[in-house]
Amino acid sequence: MSESIKVASVPISRRDSFNARDTHTRYLKPFDSGDIKVLLLENVSPKAVEILKKAGYQVDSYTKALDKATLIEKIKDVHAVGIRSKTRLTEEVLSHAHKLLTIGCFCIGTNQVDLGYAASRGICVFNSPFSNSRSVAELVIAEIILLARQLGDRSREMHDGVWNKVSKKCYEIRGKTLGIVGYGHIGTQLGVLAESLGMNVIWYDILPVMPIGMSKAADSLDEVLGTADFVSLHVPETPETKNMIGARELALMKEGSYLINASRGTVVDIDALAVSLKSGHLGGAAIDVYPAEPLANGPGFESALRNCPNTLLTPHIGGSTEEAQRMIGVEVATAITKFVDSGASINAVNFAECDLRAIPSTDMTTVRIVNVHQNVPGVLRQINNILANYNVNKQISDSKGDVAYFMADVTVDDPKHIGTIYEQVRAIQENIITRVLF
């Protein structure tokens, strides 16, 4: 059953909202921004909290992920939720999110969210795919040097009270070849940093990409594996990349070479990697991501890679720098406020990207109609038939998959007509969610 409240004599159900605001301002806003509730999990940057509070929203922030039962209870009454990589927003969880308008993933990936189901509920998802690129690239450079000098093992030995001064199989990285798999924002930055240290760079990507600096494109993944002294993975999690580095691929790598994975945990067959390290075929590895990761800090981490020789294990900290988290906080929090306040869906992951210029007049009989509907023929015609009796200043519509997004700025001569428009649009059979912004 849906709960209803009344705002300006217009009912709001769990999947429909009518938003109005003070008639003395020209900025688009919900009816009362103080009624907008935001749930932030997993220690999202204080900068994001600051931006969302400045927008007037009620912000409830937690340092950790929540268990499923608590998450379901918390998400029932919020309009926006912000997460990082540990929280799973599945169909089951999202089915309880009766008021949710938007999800902010304060990280690169969005595989922790059921994007299709979210879109079908009119929930727009944002992320920050590039803000931590430099942080990840710098971590990989550090790991390359640490692996080449076996510094992880030497440090552990010293902490155990063992003095073990050796130079065998310890190398400079100058003149060595770095192979980058996935030549996107992180891969290109990594290549530039590696070249500045005197490394040769080759890379492979499934898309045609312009090389930067002196780097060279390889014809295949196998070529990179067989040529590089260090192989660093920077690919998304897809069915095609699952276990893309397994026993066969590890065997193709040069004897004594090194593997680095700071992309997604499912990309590498961990058991096969452990075998290759213990046999001595690989000279070492640095792993920052895992197929299954703990929900909270503390003891209990298990992996076949524990105690493998010259193996650096880090707890998914590639983007965990103050600078990266601040930039991510700004980008995602700003996207959330723009979507809630003005309907802008630019850089959305699961929605068509739409935006309109701000309403230029202080005449508050001009409102913005925001509508999400099923992407089937005839809906746009129905909406335009409803708006035909009014002055439509501008409008935009686009679709992505099974969901379409529509916005229009409409001027009415009588404020009472606003409620009429709202009721008629949301009565369309294919309607998912309708909002009116002043």
From TrEMBL:
Domain ACT: from-to ranges: 368-438
Protein name (Swiss-Prot/TrEMBL): phosphoglycerate dehydrogenase
Keyword field: Amino-acid biosynthesis, NAD, Oxidoreductase, Serine biosynthesis
Cited SUPFAM superfamilies: ACT-like, Formate/glycerate dehydrogenase catalytic domain-like, NAD(P)-binding Rossmann-fold domains
EC number(s) on file: 1.1.1.95
Xref: PROSITE patterns: ACT, D_2_HYDROXYACID_DH_1, D_2_HYDROXYACID_DH_2, D_2_HYDROXYACID_DH_3
Record has NAD as a keyword: yes
Example GO molecular function: (S)-2-hydroxyglutarate dehydrogenase activity
Pathway recorded for this protein: Amino-acid biosynthesis; L-serine biosynthesis; L-serine from 3-phospho-D-glycerate: step 1/3
